[in-house]
Specification:
The chain is an alpha/beta fold and 251 residues long. The chain has 7 helices and 7 strands. The longest helix has 26 residues, at 99-124.
Amino acid sequence: MKCAIVTGCMGGIGFAVTKQLLNDGFFVVGMGTSPKEKKQEQIASLGEHFLYVSGNIADANDRKNLLDTALQTGKQIFVLVNTAGVAPTVRRDILEMTEESYDRVMNINLKGAVFLTQSVANEMLKNEDENGAKGRIVSISSCSAYTSSVSRGEYCLSKSAMSMMTMLFADRLANEGITVNEVCPGIIATDMTAPVQEKYDKLIADGLVPMHRWGTPEDIAKAVKTLYDGSLGFTTGQSIIADGGLHIRKL
C-alpha cells in the first residue's frame, strides 16, 4: 500500500479527493486547519487507512509535521495533492486590496504549496522506480488562474502563479519519473462558493457555464484520479480544465 498526502483534506474538494484515493487503495495522510476533535465524525468516516494532521500549510513547522507523519507510516509516498486554499476574507476591488489579505492568500495558496511540493518531491526521488514512475503531484488551481475577478485579485494571482509552479516542478522532475500537473476547477459547490451561491445560480442559468450546472467536488476528484493512476502517465506540466466549458470563448 502506497501513501498519499492531501492538504485541505476536510474541505469539499479535498475530502472528495481523499475518499477517491482511499477507494483506490492508498493510505492517506491529510492536513486541515481544524483541530482534530472538531472533525472526529469526518475522520472516522474515512476509516483506518487515513491519518489526520491539524496544521496550516503556510507554516514551515506544520508542513514538516505533515511530511514526518507520512514518512512514519513506513509507506512509500507516491501521491501529493495540493488542495488547501483560501479566498480573501473580504472581497475588495483590486484598487482597495490590502497587503494583509494579499499575504494571507499568497502564503496559503502559493507559498505553502511550493515548499510542501519541494519537500515531498525530494522524498519521492528516493522511491523505487515502478514502470518509469516514482510519484505523482497534482495541484488544485482554479478557473481564476485564467479568469479575471477584480474583487478578489489576490486569489487570481495566487492561482495563476500556481500554474507556473506546476510547470517549473514538472520541468525539473520530468526525467525523474515524477509527473506534476494541475486541475483547474470551475464553479464548484463547496463552502467557499456557498456565500455567493445566488450570484452563480443566476450566472449559470444565464449560460455562463455551457454545461448549465454547478460542478461537484467529485467531478474534480475524478479528474485528479486520472493524473495519479497512470492513465495520463505521459502527461506532465499540464492544466486539466474541469469547468463545464466556462473557459470557451464564444461569439
